[in-house]
Amino acid sequence: MDNRYRLNRIIEPLSYGITLEPDLKRFTFTGEETIRVRARSSFSRITLHAIELKIKSAALRRRPGGPALKAKRISYNAKLETATLDFGVRLPASSGLVLELAFSGTINDKMHGFYRTSYEVKGRRQWGGATQFEATDARRAFPCWDEPDKKAIFHLTLRVPQSLTALSNMPVQRERHLPGGRLKEVRYDPSPRMSTYLLAWVIADLESVSGRDRNNVPVRIWTTPGKQEQGRFALDTGRRSLEYFARWFDIPYALPKLDMVALPDFAAGAMENWGLVTYRETTLLVHPQQSSAQARQRVAEVVAHELAHQWFGNLVTMEWWTDLWLNEGFASYMDPKSVHHQFPRWQVWNQFVAGEHTLALHDDSLKSSHPIEIPVKNPHEIREIFDHITYNKGSAVNRMLEHYLTEPVFRRGLSKYLKRHAYRNARTEDLWKELEKASGKPVRSIMANFTRLDGYPVVSVKSAGSGRVSLEQRRFFFDGSRDPGGRQWRVPIVAAVEGRSKLFYGLLAGRRGTLALPTTGWVKVNTGHSGFYRTAYSPELLTRLAGAISHGQLSPLDCLGLLDDTFALARAGNLRTSQALDVTAAAGRYGDYPVCATVSGVLGSVNHILDDKASREKLAAFGRSFFAPLAAKVGWEPRKTDGHMDALLRTLVIGRMGHFHDPETVAEARKRFARLLKGGRLWPDLQGPVYSIVAEHGGPGEYEQLLRVYRKAGMQEERVRVLRALTCFRQKSLIHKALNFSLTEEVRAQDAYMLLGGFGHNPEGRELAWAFVKQHWKTLVSRFSSGGLRMMVYIVEGATGGLTTPAALSDMRVFFKHHPVPSAERTMKQSLEKVAATIRWARRDASDIRRWLSELI
Fold it and tell me: Is 262:270 a contact under the CB 8 Å cutoff?
């Protein structure tokens, strides 16, 4: 074995009997553990994972109830996060060994392992405990074999205060009061065979709403006191998602119950613990009157994602973290399926392309990207791959594969894969085998370079005469570099042509190829943007496509995909930015939310590289001209006929008009904010844009008013709106105030990154935010580098994402060199690469953008 961070294969666990007693006043816990293990060969020592634990005693019995052999020595390796029990004698191989441990630990404040969470009950702060074990943090709560292929059965018992609710993966088997009247002992049914990272418990004062799905599975939503009714939407969405996946996979949900808990403190968005899914409050709770459409959609998506994991990840688990995408890439692809099934008018797949798909393309064009299947060794490397490549590229290539195989075939292959490997572990190769059997197509040869290599191709399209187009592929880089390795992919091609409803299919298997397309009009390759690649058109074909957009001949999905492709190519220097702006201007006729969201992102990136006020004002004028017709259409007041997409569009358009300094929009936002402060109503969908507009055009008075809104807010969703608005202030003194506020107790640790990394979009705040992060680096690393999956990553990304000068780039290089953070190492490299590419883009095209704006405005 070449990975010293992995345990040897000699000893493996079969079952754990764990009894824990937490002290929520001292934030400590004690535990006892009985582990049935199998020894494959003789041994004298047992090494297992344990970090931040003290093992008080260890004994081994060769059979249950037999004589105990005590460990002569217990030693720890902090770097490898292990404990070694030395028994002093050689013991033979056996399948009936029992290891008994007594240990203690700390209920930490880092939002990983066994950690503390606080909430208010009748104005008083109360404490609870919760777990977050993915990826390698079960070892902080109990000694264990903390690797995904070391599946075992768990028998859990908790001794907790009688007044609190104690939840775990399985139903309660027995509950009894302990002598003294203070504690109760809660024993749970044994779990199925599962990985350590999926074990979970929550101990707190909780209330619930409940129901059952059509298969009679009991489903409960748990919240801290007074919030349980905000769980109704998630309850309905969860029940229907559970039903949908059981039917789609043709496999029943495996456990006898499903609990979902909203935790006040939670580092990630949610965690799929089998049978006990944990969430941030903002990803589970929806207030019927006070939550926005955007918040409602976010809850639906996250609930569906976590419940997809009950099959992909929990029932069948990746063998090692190299294949994490088998969990996350599939859950990220299945959740839009469930949401679309429940809410077919939400344009979920168009939003998927505008969001997840394009984010993956952006990140995977970096030289510092990584393959979907990436060898990882230590816990820091594992944490770093919970990123856009694993989640978003994983889901995007799944979508590409399904479109290539057709949904019925894809579904049949996935179902067979899950059934064959149920309660066991699998690798990517196991999935390809089942899909090849189901389809009869060369899945492995097509998918290999998309999952085993980083990057993707750009396919150049030119007219070849006689009703044909020529195709040529090369690797696409964010900064426009050429690929010295000449990498190639097998690229599924789907094309549409002007005047024909029929789609044309092909496979670009080499460097070059041709495709017969009977037209002299426009040609759109990668129709529907199911393929994970970019398309670059000759000037002639791009002009035709811009005309097709201006006449509304392309679908919104193809329009937004073309917009994203052209701007990525412009950033890379493959075409002038003015040409990409021509395509943007042509998209003005599309009153479609995903298209408008793409345009908003495009204009934001252009504004990012303009360093003079006059050009920014001209760009703002263009932005106003683009969004004004839509603003007039959607208005400020919701209509009875409005649907979900109307609400999303209104939020976006009003926010953009305010950002582009439309005086009427700014005045109306201020008026509505003043009315809200006096007790009036402000529609939930308008609160976010109104707060941001007021902040961007406000001063100290508005800052204090927003702080009062934050402090009075009864919903975490409302607090998040305010935090994001605070990053819009332009005065240096207020930016400093907001940054300092991020490190106070008023801002939960889970939310601090919103301020620390949120100023990248703010020309007046980005340099100040980076200076603040550097100044407080030690504090931030202590709080965030080990706790949570991506906290330090979000801070580094956000605090550097707005920097655009050579001096800033040089400063970043020096600072990162002398202040390494293992869990953000790749992020640092990517941040340097992005800033360097932005500087080159500005040097190359800023004058071209200014000319385009001068001619237009």
Answer: no
